[in-house]
Design brief:
The protein has 15 helices and 33 strands. The chain is of the alpha+beta class and 527 residues long. It has three domains: 218 residues, 3-Layer(aba) Sandwich (Rossmann fold), CATH 3.40.50; 99 residues, 3-Layer(aba) Sandwich (Rossmann fold); 138 residues, 2-Layer Sandwich (Alpha-Beta Plaits). The strands form eight sheets. Strands 28-25-27-26-30-31-29-32 form an eight-stranded antiparallel beta sheet. A seven-stranded mixed beta sheet has the order 2-3-1-4-5-11-6, with helices on both faces. It has a six-stranded antiparallel beta sheet with strand order 18-17-23-14-15-22. The radius of gyration is 25 Å and the shape is globular. The structure holds guanosine-5',3'-tetraphosphate.
């Protein structure tokens, strides 16, 4: 077995999808704790606070109580190397989340047992379904009164369209929570309130018929055994193949804050979650065990360390081995660059990595030459596909208080659009700069960052655009005619691609009918 094969088979790269408040931060912290990446509970939260306190523009997210940034955390568990890609929970930053989901091999869905399937989860599951991402499910907050477990599973099946296979099953809930039963291991993990905050040291009783259970559960034991019989008969059995195909999700119950039920989840996760797989490019499929390095950039983030004011491009390694100091080929620019100081994101600290393997994420220092969707290789000219740019649904035109700042405004908007903070269009006629976003909050973030990072005071005003479509046509003459006739509605995006800005949906419909040979695309893959 080659070294690449050996390393990639250890890798598990995933993201957590959930509605805000379901417990994503808490469970992240517990996973890092088990993985030895942090020493004490509370570290992830305090990291959040520290960042807020030191970074200017993130003060805004603190005020609004949301997390704008994403980061990457690596930890070891058993013989696996686990990469957890954090995603912002707030709906306004969904573009960023969607792109992060292109860089993972599986996902963990966290659901609040009192609230069930919520709106953000539905949207994120749609993205996972498009890519057939395998999903683990954790139903959280079992220490509080919630809905009946069977009802929760029905809801997941019905609303999210995925088959559920319970792996653990709760014994009681809220004040009556006694533990969980592991259906595959035939073992009961007992719950003792207050005992499991830091490590899960629950007592485990092997076998449903074990007389110890009668002792521990007392009068409730018969009812509990009956329930398990019923669950076994009525629910789907875990099927590893169906899980890997994205058709079935194994379901675990627990309480993240009490560190309860997390160990069975993590044990099963490192056993069954998929290792890195092949990735499509415009020319061929890249197998992950190829010896030459390839990777793509799915995210750019600014000011992670305000002292440096740097921008970091996150690259997912798809094949081969990355080594500090090696030369990589920047396919879009057709240039070789030497990478001397790539970053990894181990819990709180950014350490230099010496090497990285398929499934790992590395951070490249970026001075404006790397954009989302860029591919890197050891020389081959290939472009990874499938990293989407979504058509914005909200538009504003930028207005300057000081007209002399036009250059700084253009530079700021160009850079912020490369990071995916906003999309930026230059209409073919006139000098306006139009911004596009998926959520309103993006405009506030851009205004704030323009002021604090580029010293530009800009306001954003309403503009007569309702939706945008990327325009393509194989027939050059037809494209020229189209461009000449409709220049009023056409613009170039930050990557110089032609975009049709439609004032109304009716207008868009009429235009597409009038120009049947032109493709109007609601997403642009950043290739
Ligand atoms: P998020 O990242 O998905 O938004 O959720 P987060 O982990 O921040 O959790 C949201 C709230 O739910 C937090 O409470 C957290 O303590 C609580 N929580 C998480 N897991 C459990 C659990 O298993 N049981 C119970 N009862 N609560 C849980 P908060 O009051 O908003 O924040 P904090 O003051 O606790 O930090």
């Amino acid at each position: 077995m080659s070294q690449v094969q050996k390393q990639l088979e250890r890798r598990r790269t995933f993201a957590i999808i959930s509605h805000p408040d379901a417990g994503k931060t808490t469970i992240t912290e517990k996973l890092l704790l088990f993985g030895g990446a942090i020493k004490q509970a509370g570290a992830v939260k305090s990291r959040k606070t520290e960042r807020h306190a030191t970074s200017d523009w993130m003060k805004m997210e603190q005020e609004r109580g949301i997390s704008v940034t994403s980061s990457v955390m690596q930890f070891h568990y058993r013989d696996r190397v686990v990469n957890l890609l954090d995603t912002p929970g707030h709906a306004d930053f969904s573009e960023d989340t969607y792109r992060t989901l292109t860089a993972v091999d599986s996902a963990l869905m966290v659901i609040d047992c009192a609230k069930g399937v919520e709106e953000r989860t539905i949207k994120l599951m749609d993205v996972c379904r498009m890519r057939q991402t395998p999903i683990f499910t954790f139903i959280n907050k079992l220490d509080r009164e919630g809905r009946e477990p069977i009802e929760l599973l029905d809801e997941v099946e019905e609303v999210l369209g995925i088959e559920c296979a319970p792996v653990t099953w709760p014994i009681g809930m809220g004040k009556r929570l006694r533990g969980v039963y592991h259906l595959l291991d035939d073992a009961v993990h007992l719950y003792e309130p207050g005992k499991n905050y830091v490590t899960q040291d629950a007592e485990i009783i092997e076998g449903l018929d074990n007389p110890l259970l009668d002792e521990r559960l007392g009068g409730d034991v018969a009812e509990f055994r009956d329930e398990i019989e019923l669950v076994r008969g009525a629910s789907h059995e875990f099927d590893a193949e169906a899980y890997l195909a994205g058709k079935q999700t194994p379901v675990f119950f627990g309480s993240a804050i009490n560190n309860f039920g997390v160990t069975p989840l993590l044990d099963a996760f490192v056993k069954h979650a998929p290792a890195p797989r092949a990735h499509a490019t415009t020319t061929r499929e890249v197998a992950c065990d190829e010896s030459k390095l390839t990777g793509f950039v799915f995210k750019i983030q600014a000011n992670m360390d305000p002292a440096h004011r740097d921008r970091v491009a996150f690259m997912r390694v798809c094949s081969g081995r990355f080594e500090q100091g090696m030369k990589m080929h920047h396919v879009r620019l057709g240039k070789d660059i030497r990478i001397a100081n790539a970053l990894t994101f181990l819990a709180q600290d950014r350490d230099s990595v010496e090497e990285a393997w398929p499934g790992d994420i590395i951070g490249l220092h970026n001075h404006g030459t790397i954009a989302i969707g860029d591919s890197f290789t050891e020389g081959e000219s290939l472009q990874f596909t499938g990293i989407p740019n979504f058509a914005p649904e909200l538009f504003r035109v930028a207005r300057l208080r000081d007209p002399l700042k036009l250059k700084a405004l253009q530079k700021g908007l160009q850079q912020l659009s490369e990071e995916g903070a906003t999309q930026f269009f230059r209409p073919m006629l006139g000098n306006d700069l139009v911004l596009g976003a998926v959520g309103m909050l993006q405009f506030d973030v851009v205004a704030y960052r323009l002021k604090h990072e580029y010293n530009v005071d800009a306001t954003f005003e309403a503009v007569n655009v309702q939706t945008a479509r990327w325009v393509r046509c194989k027939d050059e003459k037809m494209l020229r005619d189209f461009t000449n006739q409709l220049s009023n509605n056409l613009a170039l995006d930050a990557a110089e691609q032609l975009v049709y800005l439609a004032p109304t949906r009716v207008n868009l419909q009429l235009t597409t009918e009038r120009w049947p040979d032109i493709t109007f695309s609601p997403t642009r893959e950043t290739v």
